[in-house]
Amino acid sequence: MRRLYRTAAAVALALSIAAGVSAQPDTPYVWITPPPGNIAVGQEFIATVHVSGASGVYGVSFTISYDPQTLQVVLKNDEAIQPGSFFAGQPAFTLRNRGSGGVIEYALTLTQPAEPVNGGGTLGTIAFRALAAGASAVTPLEARLLVPSFTEVSGQRVAFETKEVPAQTQAMTLNVHTSGAALNPAAPADIISPPAEALAPQPTLPVLLVGALLFLAGLALFVLSVSGYVHLRRLDTQQEGILW
Q1: Architecture of the domain whose range is 27-194
Q2: Confidence of residue 241 (pLDDT cuts 50, 70, 90)
């Protein structure tokens, strides 16, 4: 009986640990990379916005901050973001695309008959001009992926529910020098793997709840095993007293 109590408690605790370690879902991630090489004051360069872990995505929106004292957005056709390859080849509509005063805002949605996109790639590129030397950060304040659920009505596919999935983000930090040309000021190729720190498991609310429930179950079984052991010891003591 004692061995059964201890085994059940150990199994429950092991399950709670396994839930926290291995039950991590694929989380969307949005981050920014600078071009390779040095960046000099007065030089224009391209920063690239990447995404990974996307599933069934039909649109995206993000807001990025930068220091307008050290960086200037170079608009092209009055747009701050030049679309990347992630949604390439699909019909789309741009809702917002502006950048000034230290803030870049971008939002895009696909339109019928586009198909939802999975995986990772380049969401877009931003052209900056370096205004002053020193360290400068370009930080995604928020990023959300639009994920619809479709149904068919009279032969037409219609989105009956749409949710916005928040993505984890990471800033880009770069150093601007007083002189020296960049080795390659052009945008780098698609990078579909996020930075190493993004690959660490990030607990989500459902996983935490499951882990907590399993931990409580294991704790309850452990307490039960202890109380059962104490009860058995008392019975043994009483039996020894009677025999004595």
Answers
A1: Sandwich (2.60)
A2: low
